[in-house]
């Protein structure tokens, strides 16, 4: 049996990583997909709120079908920077390395010293949603984040609306149970307002104030719709859609919103964060500005920051600001490393499934058709023009990164050792089936 002259390492098996592995496999190029978790689903499993059960299952099966390929080798529970160091990875000798490790670190709330109060009045979105997604599982601490009425959320994107929904679901479910009404998450997801109306109740009847979302711009500016409108007509339509989406969310889930508010300072008592100082904003000559004399002190039991996610910093990987330092936009090549490329949320810093997959596909095709130009099959026609200028520059480099049979076997020997460390026996489907957590819909014995 002939051994491939290329072997690619992919870190992160979720949306972008699995798409890249699939694109490689389609061209006869084997890859090794390392994932930091036992399951290769990333934010599909741990960041997409669990009421999206159908979407989660669909996307996870899509990932499974791409990773369960003869040319894809899966390595679970192996985190870059911890279980394998970046310098050691480079020394292993892969033809190329693709980083699809996603954006798991919350963007810090921009108030000096605020992170001293994490767990003391400040909560970040990513660990909060992770907790919510898993708290129904046996042995999981259900009280990590006690839900309190009147919480504040700083954000404005779709993820912050999910945080608002979680808070409202938890508050309403608890209050209804105290009154003898059994209701599950999936009914509340369809509409809290409808559930309460059917029972002849209101939030006031339940003694619920509700959470409040603070957003720095106008509601019509909220990043709730895809695309980048440019013409006046497109902008007007996008603004209308955003307002409609927000109105729909509010009418169904009954949370509060305060637009044009920016947190500028913290309110601390003892060792606890008990509030924030907000200042109003307005558009002045087309630019968002703080309005002098509009500061307001807002107190709350805690605040959840939901202002975006960033890739984790990994020793040895060059960074530029909050993302990886890229020296080649066409390939998203990392500075100083000619055969290391970033893709998906590691570049975009966003959590949109479609966007992440498309970025993974685009960059993978560019890398495949350019950097790994000697792969079997004709170059993708759409990628051909995109990479034409880069081919001459990369030709010698490409030829220098073939691997011998001995190198291939040596790398795969190390890969097998990582697999054995966590008891993975190379049966992908069996591993997945044995590591899937209990699903809330199965516990409730309902179909959603």
Question: Helix count, per DSSP?
Answer: 16
The total strand number stands at: 20
Derived from helix and strand composition plus strand pairing, the structural class reads alpha/beta
Helix content: 40-55%
Poorly predicted runs of 5 or more residues: 345-351, 362-399
User: Nearest-angstrom radius of gyration?
Assistant: 24 Å
Number of domains: 2
Q: State the fourth-level CATH superfamily of the largest domain.
A: NAD(P)-binding Rossmann-like Domain
Content of β-strand: 15-25%
In short:
By secondary structure, this protein is an alpha/beta fold. It folds into 2 domains: about 10-105 and about 310-445, 3-Layer(aba) Sandwich (Rossmann fold); about 105-310, 3-Layer(bba) Sandwich (FAD/NAD(P)-binding domain), CATH 3.50.50.60. Helices cover about 40% and strands about 15% of the residues.
What does this structure look like?
With 448 residues, the protein is α/β, with parallel strands linked by helices. It folds into 2 domains: 8-104 and 311-443, NAD(P)-binding Rossmann-like Domain (Rossmann fold), CATH 3.40.50.720; 105-309, 3-Layer(bba) Sandwich (FAD/NAD(P)-binding domain). Helices cover 40% and strands 17% of the residues. The protein has helices at residues 15-26, 43-46, 53-67, 86-92, 125-134, 158-178, 185-190, 192-198, 203-206, 232-253, 345-348, 353-371, 381-400, 405-421, 428-435, 440-443, and strands at 8-11, 31-34, 72-75, 96-99, 105-106, 122-124, 152-154, 212-214, 256-258, 261-269, 272-284, 287-290, 296-299, 303-305, 309-310, 319-320, 323-324, 326-328, 333-334, 340-342. The strands form 6 sheets. It has a 5-stranded parallel beta sheet with strand order 3-2-1-4-20, with helices on both faces. Helix 1 runs parallel beside helix 12, helix 5 (125-134) crosses helix 6 (158-178) and helix 12 packs across helix 13 (381-400). Mean pLDDT is 85; it is low at 345-351 and 362-399.
């Amino acid at each position: 049996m002939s051994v491939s002259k290329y072997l690619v390492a992919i870190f992160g098996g979720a949306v972008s990583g699995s798409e890249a592995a699939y694109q490689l496999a389609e061209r006869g190029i084997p890859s090794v997909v390392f994932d930091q978790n036992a399951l290769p689903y990333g934010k599909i499993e741990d960041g997409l709120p669990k009421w999206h059960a159908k979407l989660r299952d669909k996307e996870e099966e899509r990932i499974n079908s791409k990773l369960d390929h003869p040319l894809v080798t899966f390595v679970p529970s192996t985190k870059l920077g911890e279980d394998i160091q970046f310098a050691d990875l480079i020394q292993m000798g892969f033809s190329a390395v693709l980083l699809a490790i996603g954006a798991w670190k919350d963007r810090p709330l921009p108030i000096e010293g605020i992170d001293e109060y994490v767990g003391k009045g400040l909560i970040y979105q990513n660990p909060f949603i992770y907790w919510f997604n898993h708290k129904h599982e046996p042995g999981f601490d259900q009280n990590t984040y006690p839900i309190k009425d009147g919480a504040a959320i700083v954000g404005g994107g779709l993820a912050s609306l999910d945080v608002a929904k979680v808070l409202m679901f938890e508050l309403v479910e608890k209050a209804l149970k105290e009154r003898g009404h059994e209701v599950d998450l999936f009914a509340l997801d369809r509409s809290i307002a409808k559930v309460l109306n059917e029972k002849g109740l209101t939030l006031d009847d339940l003694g619920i104030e509700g959470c409040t979302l603070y957003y720095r711009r106008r509601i019509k500016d909220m990043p709730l719709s895809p695309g980048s409108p440019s013409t006046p007509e497109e902008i007007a339509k996008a603004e209308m859609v955003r307002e409609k989406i927000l109105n729909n969310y509010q009418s169904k889930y009954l949370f509060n919103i305060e637009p044009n508010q920016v947190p500028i300072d913290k309110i601390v008592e003892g060792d606890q964060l008990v509030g924030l100082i907000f200042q109003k904003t307005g558009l002045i000559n087309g630019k968002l500005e703080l309005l002098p004399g509009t500061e307001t002190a807002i107190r709350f039991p805690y605040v959840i920051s939901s202002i975006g996610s960033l890739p984790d910093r990994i020793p040895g990987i060059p960074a530029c600001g909050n993302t990886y330092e890229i020296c080649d936009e066409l390939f998203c090549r990392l500075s100083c490393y000619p055969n290391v490329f970033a893709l998906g949320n590691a570049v975009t810093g966003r959590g949109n499934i479609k966007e992440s997959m498309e970025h993974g596909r685009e960059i993978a095709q560019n890398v495949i058709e350019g950097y790994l130009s000697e792969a079997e099959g004709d170059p993708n026609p759409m990628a051909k023009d995109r990479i034409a200028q880069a081919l001459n520059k990369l030709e010698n480099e490409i030829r220098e990164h073939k691997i011998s049979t001995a190198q291939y076997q040596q790398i795969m020997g190390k890969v097998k050792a990582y697999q054995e460390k966590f008891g993975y026996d190379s049966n992908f489907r069996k591993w997945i089936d044995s590591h899937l957590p209990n699903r809330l819909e199965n516990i409730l014995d309902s179909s959603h």
